[in-house]
Amino acid sequence: MKRLTYISSFTRPLMASEVEEIGARSVKNNTRDGLTGVLFCFNNIFYQILEGPEDALNRCYARILKDNRHKDIFCLEVENNITVRQFGDWAMKTVRLDESSDSLIRPIRTMLNSLARTHYVLERYSPFEVLQGLQKGEDPLAWVLKTSEKTILFSDIFSSTTFAESLSSTEFERLLGIYYDIANRSVMENGGTVSKLTGDGLMAYFKASDTVHALSAAIEICRRLEDVRTSAPASDPAHYLYAGVGLCSGQVREGNIGSAAKFDYTLLGDSVNSAARLEGVSRKVNPLVIFDDSLLKHIDKPSTLKKLGLYQAKGKTENLSVYTVDYPYTSRNITIPDLKAAIAKFRTASSAA
Questions:
Q1: Where is the Guanylate cyclase domain (predicted)?
Q2: Are 246 and 306 within one domain?
């Protein structure tokens, strides 16, 4: 048998009669399927423990994931191969903690609130795949590396070291916030996954079948940064906020890397390294979005496609054909030395003040 514990939030406030109806239906379905458990409701939170035959429990949990009365579903624990039920007498015991004044209930309320808050925090820090696996009732710690086809996107702020040296910590953090809001939003709106933030950049990835969306995300990062630069006066460091983007498609190894002490869910492989190196090319040419032939295998050639020439990446014996997309906002209109000099003036002005 299997036991599963999850927590979720109500999509809307539920009346007492609706909670009772959920409990009654659960008793009926669980009796039919041989499941037992308990359901706590408090402060718009569901906390439920289910146990029973694995196939029946998996079907029940799949229904819960699709139930529009739930949101932010988070699987807290999965126990496989259990032999003894903890709630064998309850097809589904429903407990409404809001209505109980028992002093023993108060710590349970506190615990559920803490779990809900922890879930909210974990969502912001944990990899999407790990959260998705937990939501499905899987154990991410048991995952092994797998091979998949991905399109990798690397982005990095130009002259971030000069920014950090020339600005106050508050101003530099504001600049990072502007960049990350744009970059994260552009990736996620186009269906990508942000894998990691690197301090002044990010790594993201897309399914190979969504390569056109990866390119759209790269273009959108540049367009939104152009809007920021245009609207900011020359006295604002955001006027000089540029970022390069490199993209590459190919086979990767995906999954857990690390040790028993610390795991990181990440992607490994030549395509990952190539995307990072292609992003570096944007420092040597005016175009901001750089990619190679691997992308063109997955998309129709855009009308704005422009071949930049051949590039020999570090560690490669053959030259790569590199490309960009030619929009007004996907090129720099300032050289790197001039950009650094303009940013450095903020330090001079600060020292003079």
A1: 151-279
A2: yes
Residues 179 and 309 occupy one common structural domain: yes
Q: Which domain holds residue 335?
A: 144-352
Report the domain count for the chain: 2
| Residue 289 near residue 332, CB atoms below 8 Å | no
Range from 100-114, 209-223, 273-287 carrying the lowest mean pLDDT = 100-114
Tokens of 184: 């994260």
Assess contact for 167 and 139: CB atoms under 8 A: no
Provide long-range contacts, Cβ within 8 A and 24+ apart, for 165-173. Answer: 165/344, 165/347, 166/237, 166/343, 166/344, 166/345, 166/346, 166/347, 166/350, 167/237, 167/346, 167/347, 167/350, 168/350, 171/237, 171/346
pLDDT digits (tens, 9 = 90+) for 272-318: 999 999 999 999 999 999 999 999 999 998 899 999 999 877 667 77
**Environment class of 97 (CB within 10 Å of its CB; exposed 0-12, middle 13-18, buried 19+):** middle
Q: Using the structure block, give the residue that is written with the tokens 């999965």.
A: 78
Q: What separation in angstroms does the CA of 274 have from each of 78, 239, 270, 316?
A: 38, 30, 6, 10
Full-model pTM: 0.77
Residues 6+ apart with CB under 8 A from 11: 68, 69, 70, 71
Sole residue written with tokens 């990619």: 291
Greatest mean pLDDT range, 104-113, 214-223, 269-278: 214-223
Indicate whether 195 and 340 sit together in one domain. yes
**pLDDT, tens digit, 9 for 90 and up, residues 137-178:** 777 888 889 999 999 999 999 999 999 999 999 999 999 999
Last residue of a domain, one of 141, 169, 203: 141
Looking at the predicted structure, is the pLDDT value of residue 240 above 90?
A: yes
DSSP letter (8 states) at residue 273: H
